[in-house]
Amino acid sequence: MSKILIIGAGGVGRVVVYKCAQHPEVFSEILLASRTKSKCDIIAAGAIKATGHKSITTAAIDAEDVPALSALIRSFQPEMVLNVALPYQDLTIMDACLETGVHYLDTANYEPKDEAKFEYSWQWAYHDRFKKAGLLAVLGCGFDPGVTSIFTARAAKHHFDEIHYLDIVDANAGSHGKAFATNFNPEINIREITQKGKYYENGRWVETEPHEIWKDLTYPNIGPRRSYLLYHEELESLVKHYPTLKRARFWMTFGEEYLTHLRVIQNIGMAGIEPVKFKGMDIVPLEFLKAVLPDPGGLGENYTGQTSIGCRIRGIKDGKERSYYIWNNCHHAAAYKETGAQGVSYTTGVPAMLGAMMMLTGKWPGKGVFNVEEFNPDPFLEKLGECGLPWEEEFGGDLEM
Ligand code: NDP
After folding, report:
1. Which residue of 71, 88, 196, 203 lies most exposed, with the fewest beta carbons within 10 A?
2. Sorting pLDDT into bands at 50, 70 and 90, what band is 186?
């Protein structure tokens, strides 16, 4: 029986609240706090109606204001904070956790607002402070990063003596009926996919132009989809924690229509993160674009099709080469029916709830700052299916890599 403070009332926050509310035996009291309290109230009312949870309350908070956040934590006294606001707030939320003595979990690594760059160094630098305080911080517990890293940990623990080649493959074969929309926060999403590609090979990082490298990959129950090589944050921690890796890459599907819109957005300067003067005010083009694009949290209603995300791995077991594929498929419509959110929010929110459950039930013990692949994957994967994301695995198939 624990109290949890959830920060961020977007699409992912909605799923986290609904899923925590389904487990009152672990999450006995839930406080949802975000910049806009009215969004928290709508989510809380929906979750109470859907689950009958007895204690979900809400609050307004600016998570970049450490004294205000520390005061909120002190008054509610949670065991942990689950951060599903934006990556910009990771460090201030970690600061408030240290100040008040509570554990921390997030789904995306820190990113400074004024530079489209993400890496773990900023958050790994908190390790000694969390350790000294006897606190646990778990980084990147969504689907990717998150489940993909836990899938890799399962492969390394149970199926390989050494993993050599890792390809994380992420397909969204859903259709939301809009000409252009992003599946999670547009600002963060567009920053991520317009940057240069990068992968790891033979001890060094290789940089590519955006979307320069692609392959047609076949996804279970979906079929072939054009998949583009991107840099994604879990590659950094996986390469560090699995030094036998000779190559690690990340692939994501995009449709032609989506890429055409993206090219136009970039070409006309709307993906810019430098402020420009408009009618005497400073505005950031990408922030303005976010305000006019569809809200990812509202895409669910007519979303059809499914996502498929997994890891394709080659390596050595008992002296022999082996190939292995582990994946989850998630239907947008089923996610919406259960939580009112589409599949991308769902596949992020379920692992975040489950990671929090692992922490609060002592299955993932630790003091310091850790990535999810550093914990035992077994108790997490035992529960992932029953929590809504069943997974499958296949040995010896053609990985197409
Ligand atoms: P949304 O933009 O829908 O939601 C973000 C929420 O955070 C909004 O409610 C917003 O408030 C709130 N927020 C923003 N700034 C602050 C602040 N300063 N203080 C308090 N609250 C704030 O995003 P998503 O729900 O789509 O994504 C949430 C997180 O999940 C992101 O960090 C994203 O990168 C991550 N993610 C991770 C994935 C994974 O697999 N690991 C996949 C998808 C997303 P307001 O409503 O007022 O704007």
Report:
1. 203
2. confident
Give the position, in ligand 1's atom list, of the atom nearest the Cα of 183. 26
Q: Which tokens in the block code for residue 379? A: 């108790």
Find all residues with CB under 8 Å of 142, minimum gap 6, and list them: 12, 107, 108, 347, 348, 349, 351, 352
Q: Which residues contact 217 (CB under 8 A, 6 or more apart)?
A: 169, 171, 224, 225, 227, 251, 253, 400
Pocket of ligand 1 (CB under 6 A): 7-13, 34-36, 39, 61-64, 84-87, 89, 107-108, 142-146, 184-185, 188, 296-297, 344-345, 348
Query: Does residue 275 register a pLDDT over 90?
Result: yes
Query: What residue ranges do the domains of the chain occupy?
Result: 147-331+391-395
Name which of 344, 351, 347 is nearest 297 in CA terms. Answer: 344
231/228 Cα distance (integer angstroms)? 10
80-83 vs 162-172, strand pairing mode: unpaired
Rounded to the nearest angstrom, the distance between the alpha carbon of 228 and the centre of ligand 1 is 25
Taking only the tens place, the pLDDT of each residue in 46-87 is 999 999 999 999 999 999 999 999 999 999 999 999 999 999
CA contacts within 13 A on the Cβ side of 16: 34
Global pTM reads 0.96
35 pLDDT more than 80 = yes
Mean pLDDT of the chain: 96
What separation in Å is there between the alpha carbon of 48 and the centre of ligand 1? 21
> Does 116 score more than 80 pLDDT?
no
Q: How many CB atoms lie within 10 A of CB 204?
A: 6
Give me ligand 1 centre to Cα 192, in Å.
Answer: 14
- The domain made up of 147-331+391-395 has a fold known as Dihydrodipicolinate Reductase; domain 2 (3.30.360)
